[in-house]
Every structure is written in structure tokens, then in C-alpha cells.
# Entry
Amino acid sequence: MAPSDSNAPGKQSDRIDEPTGTEFVGHEWDGIEELNTPLPRWWLWTFYACIAWAAVYVVLYPAWPMVERATQGLLGWSSRGELVEEMGAADLARRATFERIAATDITKLPASPDLMGQAIAGGAAAFKQHCVQCHGAGAAGYAEFGYPNLNDDDWIWGGELEDIEYTLIHGIRWEGSDDTRLTYMPAFEGLLEDDQVDAVVAHVLSLSGEASGSAAGARIYEENCSVCHGTDGGGAQIMGAPALNDAIWLYGNTPQLVRRQILQPRHGVMPGWSDKLDPVTIKMLAAYVHSRGGGEYAGDMMDGVAPEFDGAGENDNGSEPELDQQDQVASASGDGDDGEL
# Structure
């Protein structure tokens, strides 16, 4: 049905809508007619005020996108500039703590529980940014890929603070440092017969009580493996040879996985962070990793007992602490290569 107009153009209808007492405008479409109900004055004035406010805003603040950047506005404000100011204020607030950590030898940090706690909190923030990709948010690692668990007390290259710091700086089998931790397990494929490999696998698993060994396996192990892993399977941190006499495994503890590692060993790579992180951040990361539960202490330090640090690393319920802006570590982002400590 075509629209109709009961009045001449530009004139209002004299008809009144009985339920509302409002005049009809005179327009009709498919039986629907329009009532003469103008917008409220308050709404119109609010609308006009918004237009005026928008006109002032585009003059004072960045508004119109240009080819390379937006218009600057008379006030010169920008969200990026505000962020820079806030980050600068946060840096200033934590500068004193950073300077204290920088001036303290990493082996001396545990002697100052308050400073150690600050270092652990900062390291926790850095860990979430740079390390969780491989080691996981809870630092439990991923055995499937050979990313080690950092919560236990089993250390391939040493678990003292300076050991962890060295690993973070130079990495493991990392081409970016001449001082990287470097060792390789030889592949025994073609050197041992199948029955000999089976015997060695059984002996290796027997060292941690997970299988029954044999005299033949012990003899082959002594001739080929003990020089690095030790007669009792205790390993040797000085050369990165892991302990085999515990229940902690980097690549898995099934006979198939142990056999694969003997025949075609996998060698993880962890990047060094000296080219991405500043020395203080690396020191804080070392403190955090050390605090996860298995950190070692040199000699008879603290009478062999690890000191406690209030609020350093975990809450009473075992969860990660919430870190405020001053605890965040602003540094370059890293990659997620394999790693081991």
C-alpha cells in the first residue's frame, strides 16, 4: 500500500488521537500513522551540549587521524605520553631497591631477608614475562619437551644462586656465548647390541628403584656411563651429567624413553639472557628460581638450613603473590627455547 497524506503538503492534520490526545502529523503507511510528539527540550539541549563538547575536545586532544599520526591537540596530551610518565614514576619508586640489589653480591642476598624478598618478587614478575613459555606458569616444566621442573631439588648444572645466575647469563648450549654450559652425551646407537642396551636400561632404572637390574647391565654401565653419571648414578654437576638414582627425569622414565636417550640422546638448548635482560633482572630471576623449593646453599651457610623470606615468592596458600606496578620488571621480551638448569 502506498503512503497517503490526508492534508496538503506542509500542513498538520486536525485529527486527534483519542487515547493520548495528541495530534496526528498526517502521515500514514500501511495503516500506521505518526503522532506529533517532538523531542523533549532537555534532550535537545543535552544533544547540543554534546556537540559543543565534541567540538572543544577535537581542538584540545588528539582526534583526527592523519597519514602518520593523529592531530596533537592544544594540550599536547596522549595516552602514550601518560604511560611513559607512569612507568617513569614506577621506575623511580623502585630504583632504590634495584640499586641495593645491584650492589649486593648474589651470594650475600640470603643474608638480608628483606632484600632477598624484594629480589624474589621482582624475579617472579620477570619469570612470568620471559620463562613461562618453556617452564610453565608454576615452573613445573614439560617433560614431553625436556623443559625441566624448577620446583624440585634436582639440578643438572648446580642449584646455588651463583650457578643459576651463570646459567641465566650464558645459557646452555647457546651459540650466543662462548662461556655457555656445554656438554653432550654420546649416542650409543651402533656401539651396543640390543641386549646390551636392554641391560643398561634396566640397570639405569634400578638405580632409582624402578626396575630390577642385572650384573651384565651394571658391568656395561660401569664401562660406558659411570665416568659421567657416577658409579651410583649420582651424576656430576660440573659437567652437566644428571643424577640417575632419583625419581626425577628430564625426558621420562619409561624403558622406551630411557632407551631412546641412550641410543639417540636429546640435548636441550636454553638461551642466555645477557643480551636481553639487565644484570639486576637476571639476579632477581636467579633469586626467584632458587626460591621455588630446591635451591642449594654453599657450604655450611645458614647452618645448612634455607632461610625464610616473608612474602617472597608465594602466599601462605601456595599461590603466586599479586605484584603491584612497582614489582613489575620492564625489560625486553625473550623467546621460548628449551632450557635446563
Summary: Residues 300-306, 311-341 have pLDDT under 50 and may be disordered.
